[in-house]
Amino acid sequence: MSSFISRRRVLATGTALGLGALGATTAPAAAASPAASRSATGAEETRTLDELYEAALAEDGKLVIYAGGDFQAQQEATRQAFRSRFPGIELTLIVDYSKFHDARVDNQFATDTLVPDVVQLQTLQDFTRWDEEGRLLRYKPAGFSKVYDGFKEQNGSCVAVQANAFSFVYNIAAAGSDAPTTPLDLIDPKWKGKIASRYPHDDDATLYLFTKYVEKYGWDWVAAYAAQDNQYLRGGLAVDAVVAGQRTIAVGVGGSPLQSATSPTKLIVPDGHPFIAWGQRAAILKQAKNPTAAKLYLNWQLSTARQQTTSNGWSVRTDVTPPAGMKPLWEYPDVYLDFPQFMADRAEVERLKQTFALYFGEVTGDATPGWLGLHPGA
Prior knowledge:
The protein contains 14 helices and 11 strands. Residues about 1-25 and about 30-40 have low confidence and may be disordered. α3 packs antiparallel against α11 (about 290-300) and α8 crosses α9. The protein starts with 6 loop residues before the first helix and ends in an 18-residue tail after the last helix. By secondary structure, the chain is an alpha/beta fold. The protein has helices at about 5-10, 15, 50-60, 75-85, 100-110, 125-130, 170-175, 205-215, 220-225, 235-245, 290-300, 305, 340-345, 345-360, and strands at about 60-70, 90-95, 120, 135, 160-170, 195-200, 230-235, 250-255, 265-270, 275-285, 335. Strands 1, 2, 3, 4, 5, 6, 7, 8, 9, 10 and 11 form an 11-stranded mixed β-sheet that branches.
């Protein structure tokens, strides 16, 4: 195996290799405790969930959400929980890749055919642009002040309702006592033919993770990884392959470091090695047909009760304590939280995508949520 390019050399030659300005961001963004809340205008919502619920029923009793994700079933627990808590509200929650949802919403703006009331996406740069265009309703749900500062805009244009972390997972039974613990383990020959991987040039969060690997280990690591006879899959299919026992490791995916007795996989939060995290932001569109139901949804998602029962154990709120053995995401010394800044430089993102395509080949396979067209949920 070839020796790794030094980190200094990677940063010095970043532009030519496709890292560009990202080389300046070399230290974990969250090594310190959360920043103190900056000054902001606008009061938080004071109505209770029940009061908002009654108002939403009187408004129209409907709610349409476009949510970023891999499969429609990924949001089924949210659908069922919301419908159980607020019967009578007709919830339509459409899951698609965020990079399709944002283009879809832009086209709906252009054709005056807007469908969703709420957008809940990974494409964080869109919230900044839409706010500048006057497309977003600036609104602060109850608990807004308790959300980690890096997971919201202080003007209330958007706020994260879900905390995500990307690293790699492994099949507990298949890996046994020899499980990988760092990204360097992924290029060990013993894992050749046993890795399922998301394409970094198909998903910006995976791209961000792989960019941090390049900053840490150099492009030689990428070349060694590409030689591992990996199976490249779109969306959550990489995790599915590991759960099914077809592959042992899935890379560029989310999950939880918590292990239950029935958990088939475990997410690695490496010590001394990079992983990434971000808040999946949500916003109410100013042209929403159901703004009160949209406010109800944001308040419900940010409620302490809801944030205490997240599937991965992490909350976007600073006052919600994670389960034993976990920390708030921003307290891990090796986590990178500068995803919003990464997403804002679209020219650099595109250069990185094309560079990784040279190593891993073009993206193939159908989009996992299906082909939804221009106006799903209408």
